[in-house]
Design brief:
Oligomer: heterodimer
Helix content of chain A: 10-25%
Order of helices and strands of chain A: HHEEEHEEEHEEEEEHEEEEEEEEE
Strand content of chain B: 35-45%
Largest sheet of chain A: 4 strands, mixed
Number of strands of chain B: 19
Radius of gyration of chain B: 19 Å
Distance between the termini of chain B: 45 Å
Largest sheet of chain B: 6 strands, antiparallel
Distance between the termini of chain A: 42 Å
Strand order of the largest sheet of chain B: 8-4-3-7-1-11
Strand order of the largest sheet of chain A: 8-1-11-12
Number of helices of chain B: 3
Shape of chain B: globular
Shape of chain A: globular
Structural class of chain B: mainly beta
Number of strands of chain A: 20
Structural class of chain A: mainly beta
Order of helices and strands of chain B: EEEEEEEHEEEEHEEEEEEEEH
Largest interface: A-B, 57 and 56 residues
C-alpha cells in the first residue's frame, strides 16, 4: 500500500493533483519525465561594456558516449526571441562569448543551452547540464554556475526547428507566495543588484524590500540596491516558487557575481 | 547540517560571512558560531573568533585559521568544548530548501574581489570517495594566475596525505602530481599549465572535497567558483554507475601514464 501511494505521488497524475490541490506541490518537474534535457535560463549582459562568457561540458559525450552539440536560444529582457545558435564541443568543452556584436544590441536578456545528441542513445537521456556563465569587462570574467534547472525539452531527439516550440518550464508554474531572505550582507563599497529570470509561460512578479518588477515569460530583470548600508537582510517576495536571484556586485571595472 | 570554511595564502585573503537566519527568515537566537581545529589528532572545538551583528557572523582569514572549520550550534548541542574524536551532526538549522548560503569573499593584493558560497554538507564528511573535476570550465589562459583550492572536511581528525593528479586528456599525459592533506584547504598553482587546462582534469583517490577554481586578473578582477560533482549533471537510476565509469576511466588513464 505504501509503495503504491509513493508511486502515485510521483506519477504524472499525482504531480497534477499536487499542483492543483497545493498539497506538497513539486518545484522541479523534470524528475517526473522519462527523458529530458534541461537548462538554466541564463542571463546575458552586454550593457556598460560588460561581456558574458558561457562555458559547458559535453555531458552526452562524457556520460553517454554520444557525439553531441549545444543548441542556444537567446531572448531579450522581455522574453522575445532574438536568435538561436548551434555550437560544437572542443576537447569536451564549449565556450561562447556573448558581446554586443554577437547579440546585436547593448542590454540584457536570457538564454538557454541544450546539450543535443547527434545519434540515438542506448539508454534514456536525463541531463541537467548546469554550465557556467561569467560577466566581466576587458575579458576578466567572474564565473558562476547555473542557478536553476529552468527549462527543458522532454524529447532529446526533437528536430532543431521544433525545439523553440517544444521548450517548456522545468519548474512549477503554480502561483505561490515565495519569500526569500538573501543570506548575504550588501557591500557598501560596490553597487549590488539582484537579477531574476522568468522560466514560466506566465508573467511573474518579484519585489525586493518593496521595490517591484514584473517579468515576461523567458524575460529577466534586476533590482538595484539603493542603500547598501542598511543592516537588515534584503527580502525577495514573488508569486514564483523559486525566485532566487543571481547577485552581481560592481565596483569600477570589477564585477563579482554569485548566488544570493 | 553544513560546515563552513575559508582560506588565505600569499595571493588572497578572505572574509567569511555566515547568516544567523535561514532564507525563510527564521532565526534561532540560541545558536552560536563554533570553530573546530585538529590538535594532537583530535578535533578541538571552541567558540569562534569572529565579529557579529544582529544578522551575521563575520570571520577574517589569517595564517592561523586557514584550515579551521565553522558550524552553527547551541551550547547545549555542543555540550563540552575541547577535544573530541569525531565531528557529528549537531542540528539541521542549515538544511533548507532552497539551500542555506554563506558568503566567502576573497580579495587579491590589487583589491579585486570575488565571492563563493562556502558550505560543506555534513553528508560529505562521512565518506571518502574519488574526486574528479574538469579544469577547463573555470580556468583561462588569459589571466595572471590560475589555480584551484581543494577543501576536504572529514569527520575523523585525520590529516593524511593524498595525491592529486593533473591529467591532460588531449595529449594523454600526466602533467603533474601534487600532495595535499585531508581536512585542509590546499591551493594548487596551475598557472604554468594555463594554456592546456581546457583539456585537463583533476583526480584524487580516497578524497571527497570541493574544488574551487581561482582566476586572478590582477586589478581587473577575480573569479572564484567551484565545479559540480559529476553526478549532478545527470539524473536517472543509473547515474552513479555512469559516474563510476568515468572515474574508473580516469584512474586507468593515470595508472597507464604512471607505468609508461
Amino acid at each position: 500500500m505504501k509503495k503504491f501511494l509513493k508511486q502515485l505521488f510521483h506519477s504524472p497524475l499525482g504531480v497534477s493533483l499536487r499542483n492543483i490541490s497545493g498539497f506538497r506541490p513539486p518545484i522541479y518537474l523534470h524528475p517526473y519525465q522519462d527523458q529530458f534535457l534541461s537548462s538554466d535560463l541564463f542571463i546575458w549582459r552586454t550593457d556598460k561594456d560588460i561581456e558574458t562568457l558561457f562555458k559547458a561540458t559535453d555531458i552526452l559525450g562524457k556520460f553517454y558516449n554520444l557525439d553531441s552539440k549545444l543548441f542556444f536560444i537567446f531572448f531579450d529582457n522581455y522574453g522575445k526571441l532574438i536568435k538561436s545558435k548551434e555550437l560544437h564541443f572542443k576537447n569536451g568543452i564549449a565556450e561562447l562569448l556573448i558581446d554586443k556584436e554577437f547579440i546585436g544590441m547593448k542590454g540584457h536578456g536570457t538564454f538557454c543551452a541544450l546539450n543535443l545528441p547527434l545519434s540515438a542513445a542506448k539508454r534514456p537521456i536525463n541531463v541537467t547540464n548546469r554550465c557556467y556563465v561569467g560577466y566581466g569587462k576587458e575579458k576578466a570574467f567572474s564565473m558562476v554556475h547555473g542557478n536553476l534547472d529552468a527549462v527543458m525539452i522532454t524529447n532529446p531527439y526533437t528536430p532543431i526547428d521544433a525545439i523553440i516550440d517544444e521548450l517548456r518550464p522545468a519548474v512549477s508554474h503554480r502561483k505561490t507566495s515565495f519569500t526569500y531572505h538573501i543570506q548575504k550582507k550588501a557591500s557598501p563599497n560596490s553597487k549590488t543588484s539582484y537579477w531574476f529570470v522568468n522560466p514560466l509561460k506566465r508573467i511573474i512578479n518579484v519585489s525586493v524590500n518593496n521595490k517591484s518588477i514584473s517579468l515576461e515569460s523567458y524575460g529577466c530583470g534586476y533590482i538595484q540596491i539603493e542603500d547598501p548600508s542598511e543592516d537588515r537582510p534584503h527580502v525577495v517576495q514573488s508569486d514564483f516558487a523559486f525566485a532566487r536571484p543571481i547577485v552581481i556586485c560592481e565596483k569600477d571595472s570589477i564585477i563579482d557575481c554569485h548566488h544570493g | 547540517m553544513n560546515f563552513f570554511f575559508h582560506t588565505c595564502n600569499d595571493l588572497i585573503s578572505s572574509v567569511l560571512t555566515i547568516p544567523k537566519f535561514q532564507n525563510s527568515g527564521k532565526k534561532n537566537n540560541d545558536l552560536r558560531l563554533f570553530q573546530a581545529n585538529i590538535i594532537n589528532n583530535e578535533w578541538n572545538i571552541a567558540l569562534a573568533e569572529c565579529t557579529e551583528d544582529e544578522f551575521f557572523w563575520v570571520v577574517n582569514s589569517n595564517e592561523q585559521n586557514q584550515n579551521t572549520i565553522f558550524f552553527l550550534a547551541t551550547k547545549s548541542q555542543v555540550r563540552d568544548l575541547g577535544s573530541r574524536k569525531k565531528l557529528c551532526k549537531f542540528n539541521s538549522f542549515t538544511n533548507t530548501m532552497p539551500g542555506f548560503r554563506a558568503n566567502l569573499e576573497i580579495k587579491n593584493t590589487s583589491d579585486s574581489f570575488s565571492s563563493y558560497q562556502s558550505e560543506y554538507p555534513f553528508s560529505m564528511t562521512q565518506r571518502l570517495g574519488d574526486l574528479y573535476s574538469d579544469c577547463g570550465l573555470l580556468t583561462t589562459n588569459n589571466a595572471l594566475k590560475v589555480g584551484v583550492f581543494l577543501r576536504n572536511i572529514y569527520l575523523e581528525p585525520l590529516e593524511l596525505d593524498r595525491e592529486v593528479f593533473l591529467f591532460d586528456n588531449v595529449s594523454n599525459t600526466l602533467l603533474k602530481k601534487f600532495k595535499i592533506k585531508l581536512n585542509n584547504t590546499c591551493y594548487l598553482d596551475l598557472t604554468s599549465f594555463k594554456d592546456v587546462l581546457s583539456g585537463c582534469f583533476i583526480y584524487i583517490k580516497n578524497y571527497l572535497g570541493i574544488p574551487i577554481y581561482l582566476i586572478d586578473y590582477g586589478n581587473k578582477g577575480l573569479s572564484f567558483e567551484h565545479t559540480h560533482p559529476p553526478h549532478e549533471s545527470i539524473q536517472g537510476s543509473d547515474k552513479f554507475n555512469l559516474v563510476r565509469k568515468i572515474k574508473i576511466r580516469a584512474n586507468e588513464k593515470i595508472s597507464q601514464a604512471i607505468i609508461s
